[in-house]
Amino acid sequence: MKTVVSLFIGAAIITVILLGFAKFRQDTVFEKPARPTSPPLSAQKTPEQTAPVTTVATGLEVPWAIAFLPEGGDMLVTERSGSVRLVRKSGGLDPNPLLTIEDVEEIGEGGLMGVAIHPDFPQKPYVYFYYTTGQRGSQTTNQLVRYTFEDGAFSDKIVLIEAIPGAPNHDGGRIKFGPDSFLYITTGDSQEPSLAQNRNSFAGKILRVTDEGKPAPGNPFISGGGNPLVYSYGHRNPQGISWNSSGNLWATEHGRSAPTGLDEINLIESGQNYGWPTIQGDETRSGMVTPKRNSGPTTTWAPSGAAFVNNSLFFAGLRGETLYEAAIKGDNVTQLKEHFKGQFGRLREVVLSPDGMLYVTTSNRDGRGSPSNEDDRIIKIDPNKL
Ligand SMILES: [Ca+2]
Predict the structure, then answer these.
(1) In this structure, is residue 8 part of a structural domain?
(2) Which of 85, 111, 351, 363 could form a disulfide with 77 if both were Cys (CB 3.0 to 4.6 A apart)?
(3) CATH number of domain containing 244
(4) pLDDT at residue 24 above 70?
(5) What is the CA radius of gyration of the chain?
């Protein structure tokens, strides 16, 4: 009997040891480590990139554009699905949208995109939005609207420009007031490339309008030869515009989809033809403007928002997953640097705040990314430390 008990206890001890070993094996060999939702700050640095990155807001849904309110540095942020969010400089993202635009249609790349605040705000309390809305006939359209924004509330929506050709892809969407106080609007070719060469169509253009959406004085076709709102044409899908200290307008533009590559940086001048779809990349043609820099035939930036800091044009890369910095000297791009490549995923918007910081949005929830739990995010970077 004693022997039987001893054997039983011995077998039990061996079983416990074997089970423990099996658990150890499971823990150490078969269980994958949890993927961190966000890399620690130390991992976001490389020897060349020591700039600290601050997360300003998390949990956004495809933030497309940022505009700074002139007082206090608070931001209006559009989400592609149709919401307008407030991000306070002091306290991050307000939990509830300030506005939901009901007739926004989020189709493919389209939806609520650009936002711009009147340069004389709050004396002129107007905020402008560019978004994809319903169809006219078989054509999806984009439109420019203006709201009055007073005491934190939006009212009195007016449609200023309607029937800008749209499509699931190539809707343009950036709107900004220039140093001349006129509003510039980028539109896409709406997947009909020939419209970019048609100066009477709003597709594939940069438009320049007054704060009432009328033709801006001095526009190139104001007395004939094209639509009076058109400023430049022959564009495929420009999504970033910014002016340098000399007042020159530079734009980023998505190149061909198939195969890939040939994304563009252009110096935009009144009345010029930027070539799509007739010329691409380094090609030249009389009467058409070749980009100052392209990404080459095998590299895709998929460039979106752009912002000058001194003589550098920073722009966000979607497929490129990089904050690019194009050094500009006179009329030329002299160098192209890459920051944070792959570290934050797809990047959509980059703006310079009134106090000189870059704010960058991720676009990892747009259907083409791999979002972390914190996405989409707005991050802040000191450009002087890049
Ligand atoms: Ca071009």
Answers:
(1) no
(2) 85
(3) 2.120.10.30
(4) no
(5) 25
Q: 235: CA distance to ligand 1 center in Å?
A: 6
DSSP SS3 for 58: coil
Q: Confidence class of residue 49 from pLDDT cuts 50, 70 and 90?
A: low
309-343 per-position pLDDT tens digit: 999 999 999 999 999 999 999 999 999 999 999 99
211 prior amide bond cis, ω within 30: no
Taking residues 248-264, what's their average pLDDT?
96
For the chain, what is the domain count? 1
Neighbours of ion ligand 1 (CB under 5 A): 274-275
Distance 352 CA to ligand 1 centre (A): 26
Spatial distance between the Cα atoms of 59 and 105, rounded to a whole number of angstroms: 21
Whole-number pLDDT of residue 52: 87
Token output for 134: 């319903």
Pairing of strands 347-352, 358-362: antiparallel
CA of 274 to the centre of ligand 1 (A): 4
What pLDDT does 310 receive?
97
Distance 204 CA to ligand 1 centre (A): 10
In a domain, 192, yes or no: yes
Any bridge partners for residue 87, and if so which? 75, 93
